[in-house]
Amino acid sequence: MPNILISNDDGIFAPGLKQLATSMLALGKVWVVAPKDNQSASGHRKTMHRPLRANPIYNVFPPDIVAYAVDGAPSDCVAITLMGLIDEPMDIVVSGINSGPNLGQDVTYSGTVSVALEAAIFGLPAVAFSLSSRMIDADYGPSDSWLRQITAQTLQNGLPHHTILNVNIPPLPARELRGIQITRQGRRDYRDILDERIDPFGKPYYWIAGTEPGGDVEAEGTDIWAVNQGYVSVTPIHLDLTRHEFLSALQAWEW
Amino acid sequence: MPNILISNDDGIFAPGLKQLATSMLALGKVWVVAPKDNQSASGHRKTMHRPLRANPIYNVFPPDIVAYAVDGAPSDCVAITLMGLIDEPMDIVVSGINSGPNLGQDVTYSGTVSVALEAAIFGLPAVAFSLSSRMIDADYGPSDSWLRQITAQTLQNGLPHHTILNVNIPPLPARELRGIQITRQGRRDYRDILDERIDPFGKPYYWIAGTEPGGDVEAEGTDIWAVNQGYVSVTPIHLDLTRHEFLSALQAWEW
Fold first, then answer.
1. Does residue A73 fall inside a structural domain?
2. B54/A197 touch (CB, cutoff 8 Å), yes or no
3. Closest chain A residue to the Cα of B184, Cα to Cα
4. Does some domain include residue A135?
5. Stretch A193-222: mean pLDDT, rounded?
6. What does the pLDDT read at residue B21?
7. Which residues of A touch B75 (CB under 8 A)?
8. pLDDT, average across residues A22-31
9. Disruptive mutation site among A243, A245, A246, A247 for chain B (greatest number of B CBs within 10 Å)
10. B121 confidence band (pLDDT: 50, 70, 90)
């Protein structure tokens, strides 16, 4: 029975986390170590300027699951668990189910993805799951069989060094999900705006606001296209950010 | 005269930021928008759960430089500036000089690099500069000519879409710096440990601690190798994390 570590970025009480933990009970022994509150768009972080707390959580998950809430970033949850908070060797780390998609360059901001990246740094296979709906109480049920299939396949096949799977599931009823597409990262088109307001004392403050981002929905083979078409998108991503195909052109600059 | 936006992750009062801003005065008009305090290992973030403040800062930088301190992440500083905090079109974003290297998979945690990645999302060329020394009051003077040369070249040649330069400078006297090497991202070997302590009330808390990370110093052509050899390392990195060479093997799993 594999040991499965679960975390997320929506926090320990998020419905998507409970769905993922419950689904994983079919595959192995499950531990949950998740942020004590919402850490969306938190990025890949390492908290070193202050100590972290890890409090046991009762009554939230099925009784076979040991759970902790941590006052740090999603990646901190993975790091402290694998460095010894839990005295068991983990076989895989799964993250989510995130409330909202992680498509295109969203992955560079995503706390959900950072969980998986941190696991990869520790040498473990990892999968990040997101449901492409912003409703925190969306129906996570149709995801169940896909969570289990993709995690089981990852346990069986393993992943290359420093590589994880980024999975995005369309918010559709089970019968409308069209199957899996292996995809590449697409390009997001952000529509953020700066909302300047004046406080009661006459001084400005700023909200980063805006509407749901778009992207290259027409670009076949991208994660954004696949989810838009009703497919479960599976994108292999890795920790090597080098733009290899630009190396020779850069070498030719007048250094 | 190009408009140059500067930020960092060590905060508005870091000596490396002042060196970078001062060096950039030779190339154009300079704005500084930086976190009000240290945000090391902060990752690529977008602060949307609360508003941000941007306070004008006086007396820290040369008089020609307009500067703001923001109570957010490094990437927030770039986003709010480019969305309208400063009503001028920027031509380039430069970040640093970070106190400490950003080598190998450090780039996924790095606030310094996240400044440049955020600029790339906004379609601007960007360069992240780090001095490979952990001394906050290290000698940033020898970096000056390299900061100017690399930024001038980037302004002149431009960069491919969604691509930035990650520059690491060895902490050596000017005459010992051996020149520029164009490099690929190397592999870090982290040596973190979990330091568990018991508080005065009998409850545990945890520090993520450890010693300076190692890496593939022997792997010629990597950023880690170059800095170890006394070269200024210039690595092109981008926002596409897809592991393209694994797509076909992943397609062949039993889906």
1. yes
2. no
3. A242
4. yes
5. 94
6. 98
7. 43, 109
8. 98
9. A243
10. very high
Residues B108/B146, Cβ–Cβ less than 8 Å: no
Which residue range(s) make up the domain with A174?
3-186+216-251
> For chain A, first and last CA: distance in Å?
56
User: CA dist B76 to A152, A164, B99, Å?
Assistant: 38, 27, 20
Most B-contacting residue of A9, A10, A44 (CB-CB within 10 A), to test interface = A44
Specify the number of domains making up chain A: 1
Q: Is position A128 within any domain? A: yes
Dig out the tokens for B92 from the structure.
């380039």
Q: Per residue in A160-182, pLDDT tens?
A: 999 999 999 999 999 999 999 99
Query: How far A195 CA lies from chain B's nearest CA (Å)?
Result: 9
Our measurement of the distance from residue A33's CA atom to the centroid of its chain's CA atoms, rounded to an integer in Å, reads: 14
Q: pLDDT tier at A41 (50, 70, 90 boundaries)?
A: confident
**Alpha-carbon distance A20 to B92, whole Å?**
43
CB contact under 8 A, B236 and A250: yes
Q: Is residue A173 part of a domain?
A: yes
Q: Where are the beta strands (DSSP E) in B114-187?
A: 126-131, 163-169, 180-182
Average pLDDT of the residues of chain B? 95
pLDDT mean over B133-156: 93
- Residue A126: in which H helix or E strand, if any? strand A126-131
User: Are residues A190 and B51, on separate chains, in Cβ contact within 8 Å?
Assistant: no
In this predicted structure, the answer to whether residue B136 has a pLDDT above a threshold of 80 is: no
CATH number for the domain spanning A27: value is 3.40.1210.10
Q: What pLDDT, on a 0 to 100 scale, did the predictor assign at position B43?
A: 86
Q: How many CB atoms lie within 10 A of CB B135?
A: 11
The predicted-structure confidence for B199-246, as pLDDT tens digits, reads as follows 999 999 999 998 989 999 999 999 999 999 999 999 999 999 999 999
Measured between beta carbons, which residues in chain B are less than 8 angstroms from residue A79? 192, 194, 208
In this model, does residue A39 exceed pLDDT 90?
Answer: no
ipTM for this model: 0.92
CB nearest to B239's CB, from A48, A105, A253: A105
User: B109 vs A46: CB contact, 8 Å cut-off?
Assistant: yes
Residue of A nearest to B37 (CA): A49
**B contacts of A51 (beta carbons < 8 Å):** 197, 205-207
First to last CA, chain B: 56
